[in-house]
Every structure is written in structure tokens, then in C-alpha cells.
């Protein structure tokens, strides 16, 4: 089976001139040239054109595409790589759709407070940090979980989070011990809060990694000024850290 240059161009949504240019620059030669001088393309050539068009849509220039095709040994491996790239692009577009949908819902509901945070996503701002600490899956799963929530669900979850922080601040102000019953009850509540986020070790039920995560979260509250400020000051952050680490040592 083969197709003429006019048939292939029409099916691909490009011009015959583009196909001839691809031949001139060494990207895509016709499978054969007939006695009449017409160019014909077989399925292998069409598969190569498909890959060229995919890379063009990803913003690659012709020289870069030529390098990719020249370096490849196995066409199927190349197609698998493109499938993975297209799936990533699909996921990105789906996240954008969800974000815009949330914006529309917010405008219709007259919502204003901290929309930048709600619409940015659960942990987009800390993507690299989340991945470095807990892996790519932890970020992706939790991020998809957050973006999959409705605006009302996002609001409710953020309110619960703010209530938890407020409870920690009140406990720290009270001057109680991090190992007291009140502090340890808050620590248990904090761990339950973490377990509600898909992709985390606490959600997965991985005890050893959960303990490491809870201890690491406690350290992060003290070491990172962004988090320490949530608990008013360094002393408040240290109180939360000590309570969480005591809970991790004795109750997890």
C-alpha cells in the first residue's frame, strides 16, 4: 500500500511543497518515485511523517527533529517515547482545563479570598521540593487529586488546614509540653490530615516511610521560613516539630 504525495499531503493537513521540503532537508524521502516523476509513500514513510509532525507540534525545529531521527535505532522505541510525551501534554492540558473551570466557578460564585492559592493547585509552587523529598508520584497524584476537587471542596479542605494550624498556634501559646496529651492529639490529627492526601506515604500505609515523612515535615517547619511563619514564629514551629516527632517515635 502506498499513497501519492497529493494524497498524503491532504490526509496530513500539509502541502505537497512541505513534503518536498522535508525530502530536500533529509527528513523524509519518498518510498519511490514513479516513471512519471510522482512521489509515493509507503506505511513506513507515513509513520516517519507522523513522528515529524508530532515533534513539530511540540515546538521542535527541523534540525532538532533530524537529530532525533538520526540517533534512533528502533522506530517503535521512538513511538513509545512520543506516546509518553503526548500523555504528558494531555495531562498538562487537562490541568489547565480544570484550572480555568475553577476560575469560572469562582467568578460565578463571587469568590475572592486567596484565589491565587486555590487556583494554583495544592502544591504547584513546591513541585521541585515535593519531588525531591517524596518522589514524582507523590507530586503528580496529590496534584491531580487537588485539581480534581470542586471549588467548594477546595475551600473546605483549605479551611480544615487553616483550622489545624490555628489549633497548633493556640497550643504553642498555651506553653504546654510537645509530649502532652493535647499536643499528641494534635499530632495525630496532623498525621490524619496528611493521610488524606493521595500519593503520600501516610496515604499509602507505608509505616517506615510515613514515620520518616512526619519527622521530615516537622524539620521542614523549623528549617524553612515559609513554613515557620505559618506557626507565628520559630518557637511555634519548633513546638509543632517536637510534637510530631514525638508522635512518630512512639505512636506510629
From TrEMBL:
Residues 1-71 form the HTH merR-type domain. GO terms for molecular function: DNA binding; DNA-binding transcription factor activity. It comes from the Bacteria. Pfam families: MerR_1 (PF13411), TipAS (PF07739). Residues 69-110 form a coiled coil. The keyword Coiled coil applies. This is Transcriptional regulator, MerR family.
Amino acid at each position: 500500500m502506498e499513497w501519492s504525495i497529493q494524497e498524503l499531503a491532504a490526509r496530513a493537513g500539509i502541502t505537497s511543497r512541505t513534503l518536498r521540503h522535508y525530502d530536500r532537508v533529509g527528513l523524509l524521502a519518498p518510498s519511490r518515485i514513479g516513471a512519471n516523476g510522482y512521489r509515493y509513500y509507503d506505511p513506513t514513510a507515513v509513520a516517519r511523517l507522523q513522528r515529524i509532525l508530532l515533534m513539530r507540534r511540540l515546538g521542535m525545529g527541523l534540525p532538532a527533529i533530524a537529530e532525533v531521527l538520526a540517533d534512533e535505532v528502533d522506530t517503535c522505541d521512538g513511538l513509545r517515547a512520543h506516546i509518553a510525551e503526548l500523555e504528558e501534554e494531555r495531562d498538562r492540558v487537562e490541568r489547565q482545563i480544570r484550572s480555568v473551570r475553577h476560575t469560572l466557578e469562582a467568578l460565578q460564585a463571587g469568590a475572592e479570598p486567596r484565589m491565587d492559592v486555590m487556583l494554583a493547585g495544592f502544591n504547584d509552587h513546591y513541585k521541585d521540593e515535593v519531588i525531591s523529598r517524596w518522589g514524582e508520584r507523590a507530586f503528580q497524584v496529590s496534584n491531580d487529586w487537588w485539581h480534581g476537587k470542586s471549588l467548594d471542596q477546595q475551600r473546605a479542605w483549605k479551611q480544615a488546614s487553616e483550622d489545624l494550624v490555628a489549633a497548633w498556634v493556640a497550643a504553642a501559646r498555651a506553653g504546654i509540653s510537645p509530649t502532652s496529651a493535647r499536643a499528641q492529639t494534635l499530632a495525630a490529627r496532623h498525621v490524619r490530615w496528611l493521610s488524606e492526601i493521595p500519593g503520600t506515604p501516610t496515604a499509602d500505609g507505608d509505616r517506615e516511610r510515613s514515620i520518616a515523612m512526619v519527622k521530615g515535615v516537622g524539620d521542614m517547619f523549623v528549617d524553612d521560613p515559609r513554613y515557620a511563619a505559618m506557626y507565628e514564629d520559630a518557637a511555634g514551629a519548633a513546638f509543632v516539630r517536637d510534637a510530631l516527632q514525638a508522635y512518630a517515635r512512639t505512636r506510629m
